Amino acid sequence: MKLTRTLKQTLLKVPVVRDVRERMSRALLMVNSSAAAKTGQLQLSLSWKAMARRGEPLPSFGDVEFRAYSQNGEDGILLYLFSLIGTTNKVAVEICAGDGLQCNATNLILNHGWTGLLVDGSEEQVRKGRAFFASHPDTFSFPPTFAHEWVERETINDVIAKHGIGGEIDLLSIDLDGVDYWVWDALDVIRPRVVVVETQCIWGADVAVTVPYARDFQAPLVDGFGIYGGASLPAFVKLGRRKGYRLVGAQALGFNAFFLRDDLGIDLLPEVVAASCLDRPFVRWAAARFLPLVRDKAWVEV
Q1: Residue 32 lies in a domain
Q2: Whole-structure pTM value
Q3: How does residue 221 score in pLDDT terms, banded at 50, 70 and 90?
Q4: Could you tell me which residues come within 8 angstroms of residue 133 by beta carbon, excluding any fewer than 6 positions away?
Q5: Of 22, 173, 162, whose CA–CA distance to 97 is shortest?
């Protein structure tokens, strides 16, 4: 028997049903860090290392994408990047990590022995994240630090430093849906080897803009979507070059971009142009659908 949409929505509000759904979700998350999942990822990593060592043609980002805990295919891309360039301290900093059950650092933490700092502005999300990592068999002894902080460019360096992180780390991920550009611009307490940023892909490959900075910026809903926020990919490319990073690719939907520090892996992972990351069906659809709704709002050219 099929349930009507109204009945489904009503059931999801019932505490017992909601609890069952949360238990099922957690069970699925455990599967993604099972012995079989770890073994499969290890085999992938070893095969990519071997290909690079033998000088064989390397796969594209589209060929290595997979999702374990990331929103889309970022888990596979990150595993691929670190398979090629190696790791130093396996420390990640993720800004706006939600509850940690879906973010870019979690797969590395649970399946590859990483640790680090996860930051979010929601006290409830942080509470859930702390409980998740404290109860997971791979992290209960040494969970990552989960910090409840409102992120601003004036305080971001202090937020990270007070949790004992500084200097070179392996990964920085920023997904604020807001003043992302200004936060990365201000960051200097850490020197990440790989940086992942969510971009406002609707602007295409030729316009370098960001939302103006405001300490209390929150992306307003536009036609039901939070699309007035962030910065275009060309804006991040300019910022990355100034900070010593090059664009090496994006995930399949084109809005999460990956930057590699210039002193690493240049022979294996050369710089790519923004247009190559944005020539995607989703980007074309999103630009046609959403750019007319926010084009005339306040944007800063950089």
Answers
A1: no
A2: 0.90
A3: confident
A4: 100, 109, 139, 140, 143, 144, 146
A5: 173
